[in-house]
């Protein structure tokens, strides 16, 4: 009986370590994204950032399911996750924005620095999530922001305004939807998240020929916009509900 319990405990620890390793592996696509940035390959950098995002979407549910915090109390999975997320959600996208001139000339370095500094307060916020698993304040998803700048080919001045607004929203309790953890409308949100991801990859790859995404694949482009509006609408609805209710 004792041997069986020991074997079960050993399996639990091995599984818990495997999940922590999965979290840490998220650094590797981040490194590949950084290498792509240095090679001036914006589409490839975005694809690697997308892979890092996919890894991040897996480790949290696995950690909760297998009680990783209880099995390995010495390792703080939340801190580990925050370090990886800050790198792939904030640091590398800030470098991306700087390298590819997504804001007006002369503002690249200040904008990247602004992103890196204000995002620290997002990751240090103990009340980052609401009781129904929405984010409270902009969740420093600059990887998604630079993806939109790239796909939409938006004006650098507009991009700079968006950066400033999102930076301020880190400190404002506006609600932003977590596509996997928010229970309300989950049967709709999760499939749309997968559609959004597939369309984003498609549009980024289509742009590798130097054509704008809207021109290279107009149908996919407008479906991407409509799906994006769903997530925006859900976030605005939750924010207004909290304020009015």
Automatic annotation (TrEMBL):
Pfam families: CDP-OH_P_transf
Transmembrane segments: 21-38, 107-124, 133-151, 157-176, 188-205, 220-240
Single GO MF annotation: phosphatidylcholine synthase activity
Primary subcellular site in the record, as a coarse category: membrane
Annotated compartments: Cell inner membrane
GO biological process assignments: phospholipid biosynthetic process
Transferase recorded as keyword: yes
GO cellular component terms given for this protein: plasma membrane
Name this protein carries in UniProt: Phosphatidylcholine synthase
């Amino acid at each position: 009986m004792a041997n069986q319990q020991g074997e079960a405990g050993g399996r639990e620890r091995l599984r818990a370590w495997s999940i922590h390793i999965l979290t840490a592996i998220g650094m590797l696509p981040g490194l590949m994204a950084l290498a792509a940035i240095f090679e001036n390959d914006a589409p490839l950098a975005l694809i690697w950032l997308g892979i890092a995002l996919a890894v991040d979407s897996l480790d949290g549910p696995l950690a909760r399911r297998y009680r990783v915090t209880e099995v390995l109390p010495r390792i703080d999975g939340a801190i580990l996750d925050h370090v990886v997320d800050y790198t792939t959600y904030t640091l590398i996208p800030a470098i991306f924005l700087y390298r590819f001139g997504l804001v007006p000339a002369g503002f690249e370095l200040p904008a990247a620095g602004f992103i890196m500094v204000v995002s620290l307060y997002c990751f240090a916020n103990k009340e980052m999530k609401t009781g129904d698993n929405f984010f409270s304040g902009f969740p420093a998803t600059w990887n998604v922001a630079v993806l939109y700048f790239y796909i939409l080919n938006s004006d650098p001045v507009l991009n700079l305004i968006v950066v400033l607004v999102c930076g301020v929203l880190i400190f404002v309790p506006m609600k932003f939807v977590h596509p996997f953890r928010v229970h309300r409308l989950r049967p709709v949100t999760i499939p749309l998240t997968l559609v959004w991801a597939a369309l984003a990859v498609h549009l980024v790859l289509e742009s590798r020929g130097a054509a704008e995404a809207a021109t290279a694949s107009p149908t996919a482009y407008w479906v991407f916009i409509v799906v994006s509006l769903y997530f925006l609408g859900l976030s605005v609805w939750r924010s207004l509900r909290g304020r009015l209710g």
